[in-house]
Amino acid sequence: MRTFGVEEEFLIVDPSNGSPLPLAADLLRLQDPGEPADLSTHPALAVELHQEQLEVITHPHSTLSGLSAEILSGRAYADSLARKVGARIAALATSPLAVTPHSTSNPRYDALLEKFAVVAREQLTCGCHIHVSVDSDEEGVAILDRIRSWLPPLMALSSNSPFWDGADSGYASFRTQAWNRWSSAGPTEIFGSAQAYHQRVADLAATGVVNNPDFDARLSARHPTVEIRVSDVCLDPRDTVLIAALVRGLVETAAREWKSGQAADTVSAIILRQGAWLASRWGIQGELLHPLTHKPESARNVIAALHNHVRDALVEAGDAAYVEESLQRIFADGTGARLQRQAYARHGRLADVVSDAVVVTHQEPAIYEPLTQADLSLLVPNPVV
Questions:
Q1: Burial of 334: CB neighbours in 10 Å, binned 0-12, 13-18, 19+
Q2: Which CATH number applies to 4-373?
Q3: Which of 41, 86, 113, 227 has its CA 20 to 30 A from that of 209?
């Protein structure tokens, strides 16, 4: 069974007015000191480019139930720290209210801000990255080549950023639009081999613009995983679990295709970019590009095709029932983008969109409960970062 882990980025918000607060460094200082990271009874926390956001990183898991439990406890743990300084954690991929972010000062981020200027200064966006284990770089690159067309539906299912700079952007995932301003962001062409992949990364580094490319999906630089990076952070934690299950199913399906000799679809990256734009614009409320034909079809049909594509892998992993139920729920209730817009329609204030988001972010666990020793025995060593 392939292991998988999740990185979720969250906004730190003022519960009284919904404004993002630059408190990430303060929250990290509030963690329990003296506990080795690899023995921690809660997910790891990390700062990001701006102090208004916090990243929560799970351990790798082999079961969906184990991953789900840590996603819930990670949100609750981060929120328990935020509460100590009068803040809350909200799973919003962009801030509904206008904000001027405060950058995190370290050599890496200072260099990014100097080089990318306004793109970096405005990049207060929160994503959800899924890591799935692979046996080798060769297998990993073969998987990257075979999942490219299936990533926009994941973007649509996770869409959770309709507001930008204090107004409705018109997009379901405006985070995607903001993120794609980075020079190496977006879909890639076929690599064909691990050697070609690493050469492409080296060639990009040689330009002097980027060191670690922001591809939609890539090999992790630090772990034996592929990292899928197209999703907004999901408002509802159940949606995060769904995305993780679908990603693991995609990775396993792609690996089997490679091992059986099935060639990768050679559709160009520019066509894939159009599919990503449709997913960003409409989420699951409009048309998406079908991953097999690259022609527009209803989101429901495209998501059904994704579901069918990974069905065997889901069944074998024991994830099929959860995915079936979750997809039905999302098409009935909507993604985070729809829930945010409904909150604004009810209240008429963006501050109340944030307040409602805090409730949904933490709707499952009432209080943080550290993982028990029994829970820890099920974890795979070395947290995904």
A1: buried
A2: 3.30.590.20
A3: 227
